[in-house]
């Protein structure tokens, strides 16, 4: 069954808090029990020391144990005097035990009051022995269980205090205190669990809300609503995720707009020469225009224009997909450039354009590139300058390099390009309005193809204003060391 992110967050926070609260509760109970047991042991040790001291003082006064052995009440009184706590009421079993004949001590295991005891008082766990370890107050059958403490007087051992094993005595007030503390810890733990559940609910809501919003926006984006944006409400990872989502949505929106422009531009570029061809063919068919060499030449020009457009589209599609073949070898790019200039020289001369080649380096290193694609790049750029430079103008081509890169700049004279339009020149079907002339036959794809060829050679291409008054295209290629 699918669970929402809020439920998962709630369960995660609640489980974590439950583990922490349970751990704290167990640790506090363990610490309290340990401290209480240490307190009881310390109190018992203090009572044993007091009892040994009282018995030593009693022996010093009487000179023997005979008076004590004949007076059980005195023995019980000495036992009770070992406890220094004030306002302690005598146990209820004193009178009954004191009235019993003989010196059997302690009383029966089930207790003098007939009830089993969880905590056996110190008075019921001690025996008194002579120096020769004969019993004064005790039970012979339990001698083996005793741990003996010597009772000294005048530097000599005059007797022994025997202690039976068992847990120390706990007073009623102490037990009640422990019970109250245990109950308080339990209530505190329960309160912490309730508060944790409330806090987990709040955190799950606060953290789940932006995630749910992002999920909903992603669904809308998948349906084509590219204009959707998320509010950025924080500077944490969720806020960064919202910013990244907005950037992605903006990129998709721009891509969709570019796709629509691309389809519209292709339709427009194809429709125009087809409309001209149709009009001329209908004129020939209707006899309005005679069939002549001039008419055939006009039709051929329109066909060639369609052919150039489709070829440019094909080349651009191949370069976009990375399907253009590149056979890279070590070549001299300057030789390729000179060959292209020689091939286009008649067209430059027909338009009275002066072309200058400036070689800034005599020792030009080899370039790892495809000579045919490099020639396609140079010819596209040179034909762009040829088509859009006014007659009688000038084209300057400079080649230079440093240790890391080769720089080729093709600059021409007027007309120029506005500064704000320089970054758009490499977009598909983009042509500057002021110099956009359909007589040139261009569809605005040449520079886009050039950009892809340069990128395939790990280079960079940019457009800038030329010092000659026109446009300058700068190409940078990395050199092989």
UniProtKB/TrEMBL annotation:
Keywords: ATP-binding, Kinase, Membrane, Nucleotide-binding, Phosphoprotein, Transferase, Transmembrane, Transmembrane helix, Two-component regulatory system
SMART domains named among the record's database cross-references: HAMP (SM00304), HATPase_c (SM00387), HisKA (SM00388)
EC number of the protein: 2.7.13.3
Entry annotated with the keyword Phosphoprotein: yes
GO molecular function: ATP binding
Gene3D superfamilies the record matches: 1.10.287.130, 6.10.340.10, Histidine kinase-like ATPase, C-terminal domain
Location of this chain's protein in the cell: Membrane
Residue ranges constituting the HAMP domain according to the UniProt record: 205-257
Pfam family, one: HisKA
Keyword Kinase: yes
Classification via InterPro entries: HAMP_dom, HATPase_C_sf, HATPase_dom, His_kinase_dom, HisK_dim/P_dom, HisK_dim/P_sf, Sig_transdc_His_kin-like_C, TCS_sensor_his_kinase
Xref: SUPFAM superfamilies: ATPase domain of HSP90 chaperone/DNA topoisomerase II/histidine kinase, HAMP domain-like, Homodimeric domain of signal transducing histidine kinase
Name of the protein in its database record: histidine kinase
Species in which this protein is naturally found: Methylomonas rivi
């Amino acid at each position: 069954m699918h669970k929402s992110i809020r439920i998962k967050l709630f369960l995660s926070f609640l489980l974590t808090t439950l583990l922490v609260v349970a751990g704290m509760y167990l640790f506090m109970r363990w610490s309290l029990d340990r401290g209480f047991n240490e307190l009881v042991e310390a109190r018992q040790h203090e009572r044993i020391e007091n009892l040994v001291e009282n018995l030593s003082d009693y022996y010093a006064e009487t000179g023997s144990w005979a008076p004590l052995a004949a007076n059980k009440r005195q023995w019980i009184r000495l036992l009770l005097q070992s406890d220094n706590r004030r306002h302690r009421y005598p146990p209820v079993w004193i009178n009954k035990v004191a009235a019993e004949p003989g010196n059997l001590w302690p009383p029966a295991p089930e207790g003098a009051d007939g009830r089993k005891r969880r905590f056996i008082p110190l008075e019921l766990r001690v025996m008194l022995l002579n120096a020769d370890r004969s019993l004064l107050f005790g039970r012979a059958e339990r001698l083996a269980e005793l741990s003996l403490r010597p009772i000294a007087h005048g530097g000599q051992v005059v007797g022994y205090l025997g202690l039976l094993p068992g847990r120390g005595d706990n007073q009623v007030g102490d037990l009640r205190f422990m019970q109250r503390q245990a109950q308080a810890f339990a209530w505190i733990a329960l309160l912490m669990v309730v508060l944790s559940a409330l806090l987990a609910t709040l955190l799950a809501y606060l953290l789940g809300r932006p995630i749910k919003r992002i999920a909903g926006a992603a669904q809308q984006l998948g349906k084509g609503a590219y204009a959707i944006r998320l509010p950025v409400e924080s500077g944490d990872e969720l806020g960064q995720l919202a910013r990244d989502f907005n950037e992605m949505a903006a990129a998709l929106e721009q891509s969709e707009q570019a796709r629509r422009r691309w389809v519209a531009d292709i339709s427009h570029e194809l429709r125009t020469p087809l409309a001209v061809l149709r009009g001329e063919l209908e004129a020939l068919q209707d006899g309005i225009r005679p069939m002549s060499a001039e008419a055939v030449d006009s039709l051929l020009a329109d066909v060639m224009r369609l052919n150039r457009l489709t070829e440019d589209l094909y080349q651009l599609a191949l370069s976009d997909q990375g399907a253009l073949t590149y056979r890279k070898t070590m070549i001299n790019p300057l030789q390729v450039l000179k060959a292209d200039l020689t091939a286009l020289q008649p067209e430059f001369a027909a338009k009275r354009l002066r072309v200058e080649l400036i070689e800034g380096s005599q020792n030009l290193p080899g370039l790892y590139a495809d000579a045919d694609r490099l020639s396609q790049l140079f010819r596209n750029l040179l034909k762009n300058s040829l088509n859009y430079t006014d007659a009688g103008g000038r084209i300057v081509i400079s080649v230079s390099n440093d240790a890391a890169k080769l720089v080729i700049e093709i600059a021409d004279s007027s007309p120029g390009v506005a500064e704000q339009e320089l970054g758009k020149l490499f977009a598909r079907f983009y042509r500057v309005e002021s110099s956009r002339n359909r007589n040139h036959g261009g569809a605005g794809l040449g520079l886009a193809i050039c950009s892809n060829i340069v990128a395939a050679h790990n280079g960079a291409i940019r457009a800038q204003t030329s010092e000659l008054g026109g446009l300058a295209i700068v190409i940078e290629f990395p050199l092989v060391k």
